[in-house]
Write a structure and sequence with these properties.
Helix content is 38%, strand content 20%. The protein is an alpha/beta fold. It has a six-stranded parallel sheet with strand order 1-4-3-2-5-6, with helices on both faces. A three-stranded antiparallel sheet has the order 7-8-9, with helices on one face.
Length: 285
């Protein structure tokens, strides 16, 4: 496994792989890897011949009061995990390599970037699309794999790829959860034992919404209320949103017809967590 900290070395290694006829797959991450990330690596490995994992805690996507400084950085552990998965190349640039000067050129997917997390994290998705566009230019992968855990990010990146004709395929991997239902996240490391229990309210609220839907509820307002009621039972958790939206445009929907994204975000203590499910109406229901 090759480890590259520079853009030039990464380009050279990918070029060599491509000249050898290999299909290149990219998994962008911020490190502090867990099984969720590794599931994406496995998907990428199954669909390509040269797997690149980027590890970069992107300052551009953190707000001024957010956790950039304390975001977990566990490179040696990450390296070992990726080596075991048979990854071909880690691209782990320093911030100066990616942003030698503050970028004057940003990539922004308008409208959709101001929905869901974009409301309480203004500029977050612009930071994400700017760095992902750079990674796409640097690695030039045939496929790039993202997690459904960040459903809004998936919708926004798909739109960016479509609008800007990036010559690659976006693949989405399902959410990997702990055995008790908590969606895996690098930020779960911030939780103390009590908060770790309280954090289960996100997946519990989604399950409640799923049950209401299974019993025939189709009104977004009432589904949201079913989830919100679950949140109200837990102290020390502040809901950011419980939303029922179109999975592509992220616009709110009034009724569930065909397929909707149900997304939740909440602060458990100071830690902001997100989770989601997709509700689908079968053809004959
Ligand atoms: P991050 O390091 O948090 O930026 O995440 C890197 C990639 O891993 C993103 O595409 C995330 O959506 C994905 N990811 C994070 N957590 C999970 C999870 N629990 N299951 C599946 N994918 C995940």
């Amino acid at each position: 496994m090759e480890i590259c900290s520079t853009i030039n070395a990464t380009r050279a290694a990918v070029r060599a792989a491509r000249q050898a006829g290999k299909r290149v797959g990219l998994v962008p991450t911020m490190g502090a890897l867990h099984e969720g990330h590794l599931s994406l690596v496995r998907i990428t490995k199954a669909k390509s011949d040269f797997v690149v994992v980027s590890i970069f805690v992107n300052p551009l996507q953190f707000g001024p009061t957010e956790d950039l400084a304390k975001y977990p950085r566990t490179f040696e552990r990450d390296r070992q995990m990726l080596e075991r998965e048979g990854v071909d190349l880690i691209f782990a640039p320093a911030p100066d390599e990616m942003y030698p000067t503050p970028p004057a050129t940003n990539v922004n997917v308008e409208g959709i970037s101001e929905r869901l997390d974009g409301v309480s994290r203004p500029g977050h998705f612009r930071g994400v699309t700017t760095v992902v566009a750079k990674l796409f230019h640097i690695v030039a992968p045939d496929i790039a794999v993202f997690g459904q855990k960040d459903a809004a990010q998936v919708a926004i990146i798909k739109r960016m790829v479509r609008d800007s004709n990036f010559p690659l395929e976006i693949v989405v991997g399902p959410i990997v959860r702990e055995s008790d239902g908590l969606a895996m996240s690098s930020r779960n490391a911030y939780l103390n034992a009590e908060q770790r229990q309280q954090a289960l309210v996100l997946s519990r609220a989604l399950r409640q919404i799923h049950q209401s839907f299974d019993k025939g509820e189709r009104s977004a307002t009432r589904l949201i209320e079913a989830g919100s009621a679950v949140f109200r039972e837990v102290p020390n958790v502040r809901v950011d949103y419980v939303a029922v939206v179109d999975p592509d445009s992220l616009e709110p929907v009034a009724e569930v017809n065909s397929s909707v994204l149900v997304a939740v975000a909440a602060y458990v203590g100071a830690t902001r967590l997100i989770d989601n499910i997709v509700l689908k109406l079968s053809e004959n229901s």
